[in-house]
Amino acid sequence: MENRAQWGTRVGFLLAAMGSAIGLGNIWRFPATAYESGGGAFIVPYLFALLTAGIPLLIMEYTIGHKYRGSAPKSYATMNKKMEWIGWWQVLVAFVISTYYAVIIAWALMYAFYSFGQSWGSDPTAFFVGDFLNLVDAGQIGGLVPKVLIPLVIVWAIVLGTLSRGVKKGIEVANKIFIPTLVVLFLIIVIRAVTLPGAMAGLNSFFEPDWSRIADPNVWIAAYGQIFFSLSIAFAIMVTYASYLPRKSDITNNAFITGFANSSFEILAGIGVFSAVGFMAFQYDTTVAGLAAEKGVGGLGLAFMVFPEIISQIPGIPGLFGFLFFASLVLAGFSSMISISETYVAAVSEKFNISRQRSVIYGGGIAAIISLLYATRGGLNILDTVDHFINSYGVALAGLFEVVAVAWFARELKNLQTHANKTSDVMLGSWWRVCLGVITPIVLGFQMVQNFTSELA
Ligand code: PFF
Ligand code: NA
Question: 264: how many CB neighbours lie within 10 A of its CB?
Answer without folding.
Answer: 13
